[in-house]
Design goal:
This protein is mainly alpha-helical. It has eleven helices and no strands. Helix 2 crosses helix 8, helix 3 crosses helix 6 and helix 5 runs antiparallel to helix 6.
């Protein structure tokens, strides 16, 4: 089956222009030979393409005179810059591959781009991660960044402004490659830690003092205790921590 490259280009490039997260993700993948090799391989597996092929980075070095890891002439400082640089590089590589008759790899490039948009972003992640995080909230972005570094989800990086920090956080979580269950559990723990941080910050700002715990304050039925324990086990956190976070979340929804 012949792939309609012009249709894919219009779909993917149009999506890159209007969606900063997706554009930054594509730029990150194209900027790293290991990421390109990984997602090429993952795309082929997803499409059940069992053809034995060289690593994509090896082919690119062949057709571009070892230009692969220094392809970007400058580090883009804006969404528009990353958009333009990424498309120019894709077009450059496609031209070189066609010139050397590596047409299968041209197909692989477009398949990978389509996979990253339609399957990694839209189906697997569904943009449900970090929908509460705003680029304008510098303190929360820095807290999430440090939390994910300590959790070994992302690596340290140099970023020019808060928007790039936000984009690095979100795309870093998308590009992290654990089993889906582990990804979801790690995200749940992050949300619990976020809620606890929010609670501490709110309490300190109001000058409130946390009351002493007393068994007479709250009484749970045996059934409620059992279900609370199961919920806590599912989220991988202590029962009291889960209950605190749940109460805070419900209270925030009322505001």
């Amino acid at each position: 089956m012949t792939m309609n490259y012009s249709y894919i280009e219009n779909e993917i490039y149009g999506y890159m222009r209007k969606n900063k997260v997706f554009c930054y993700l594509i730029w990150r993948v194209l900027s790293n030979s290991k990421d390109v090799n990984f997602y090429m391989f993952k795309t082929r597996n997803y499409l059940k393409d069992l053809t034995v092929k060289y690593d994509f980075s090896r082919v690119i070095k062949t057709v571009t005179n070892d230009f692969f890891d220094k392809k970007f002439l400058f580090e883009p400082k804006s969404h528009e810059g990353r958009y333009v640089e990424s498309i120019e590089y894709i077009n450059f590589v496609v031209t070189k591959l066609n010139a050397y008759n590596y047409t299968d790899y041209v197909t692989d490039i477009y398949r990978m781009l389509d996979y990253l948009r339609n399957d990694l972003i839209k189906k697997t992640c569904r943009y449900r991660y970090f929908d509460w995080l705003k680029a304008s909230d510098s303190k929360t972005c820095e807290w999430v960044y440090n939390y994910l570094i300590k959790s070994r989800v992302i690596d340290k990086t140099q970023y020019q402004d808060n928007e790039e920090l936000y984009l690095y956080i979100v795309t870093g979580f998308y590009l992290w490659q654990p089993p889906q269950e582990e990804r979801d559990n790690r995200y749940k723990k992050l949300l619990l830690a976020r809620n606890e941080r929010k609670h501490r910050t709110t309490s300190q700002s109001k000058g409130s003092v946390r009351p002493k715990k007393s068994p007479k304050d709250i009484q749970l039925s045996a059934e409620a205790r059992t279900k609370l324990t199961e919920l806590a086990l599912n989220y991988g956190v202590p029962a009291s921590e889960w209950l605190n976070s749940f109460i805070i979340d419900e209270y925030e929804k009322m505001k």
